[in-house]
Specification:
The protein has about 130 residues and is of the alpha+beta class. The protein has a domain of about 90 residues. The protein contains two helices and three strands; from the N terminus they run ααβββ. It is elongated, with a radius of gyration of 29 Å.
Length: about 130
């Protein structure tokens, strides 16, 4: 004799275990979304760190370019970037005392984070006689 669940409809036997499959699919989807959110968070933090390293490297290079610090501007930019875990990929001295610096920062993701910054002397106040 076959045992039947109380109140079970004999036509619904094909649905036994469907709840387990639904729960497993929901948990799997939640894990995929969590991994994606962690990847985006890592990318955002890495981009901010690369931007900050580029900003500071450009500022220090601009100060050296203007003669406020006795050093080679690009060498100083490289030292500053290294202190923030980045490497200078481009350092360009431009006219007017402006410096353009690009950096690359290795991340836990398969690609590096990159940042670019430009710095120079403050603007001159307008001439007033």
């Amino acid at each position: 004799m076959t045992q039947r669940h109380k109140g079970a409809d004999p036509d619904s036997r094909g649905e036994l275990g469907a709840g387990t499959v639904t729960v497993l699919a929901s948990v799997g989807a939640a894990l995929v979304l969590l991994v994606g959110a962690l990847g985006l968070g890592t990318a955002a933090v890495s981009a901010a760190r690369a931007g900050a390293a580029a900003d500071l490297a450009a500022l220090s290079a601009a100060d050296a370019f203007r003669g406020l610090h006795p050093a080679d501007p690009c060498a100083l930019a490289e030292q500053t970037a290294l202190r923030h875990g980045a490497a200078v990929t481009q350092c360009e001295l431009q006219e007017g005392g402006t410096v353009l610096v690009s950096v690359s920062l290795s991340t836990a993701l398969p690609w590096p984070a990159e940042g670019t910054a430009r710095a120079g002397p403050p603007p001159m106040p307008p001439f007033q006689p």
